[in-house]
Amino acid sequence: MTLPAFDKNDLNQFDEPANLLKALSHPIRLCIVRGLMRKKKCNVSYMQECLDIPQSTISQHLQKLRAAGIVTTERKGLEVNYILADQRIEEVVKALFGEEECQA
Q: In this protein, which residues make up the domain named HTH arsR-type (predicted)?
């Protein structure tokens, strides 16, 4: 039996991937994710210094990435570092930018 190309009864399977793509759909968030792929972990101050945008703006974008499960935090004393939490995102970003652009 051949599966239909489109199945209106199975649209729920697209919710989570669509939400991941939605969370990535901003240039700053894509830049943050690619930067985390290169550096592996990073704090907000470092991102703010590199991107030269307000810390509050970066924090807002990081919150959206956290809510989508794309990044998570790692605390060491007072310092909070962000790391990628979902390996699938690395594959998506590599497909968009090429593997060489995503390596340190």
A: 11-104
Question: Which CATH number covers residue 63?
Answer: 1.10.10.10
Quote the pTM value. 0.87
65, 33 Cβ separation under 8 angstroms? yes
User: For residues 66 and 48, what is the distance between their CA atoms, to the nearest angstrom?
Assistant: 17
Residue 10 lies inside a defined structural domain of this protein:
no
Interval 83-99: pLDDT, tens = 999 889 999 999 999 98
**Distance between CA atoms of residues 22 and 51, nearest Å:** 21
Check if the beta carbon of residue 58 is closer than 8 Å to that of residue 51: yes
Q: What is the pLDDT of residue 9?
A: 77
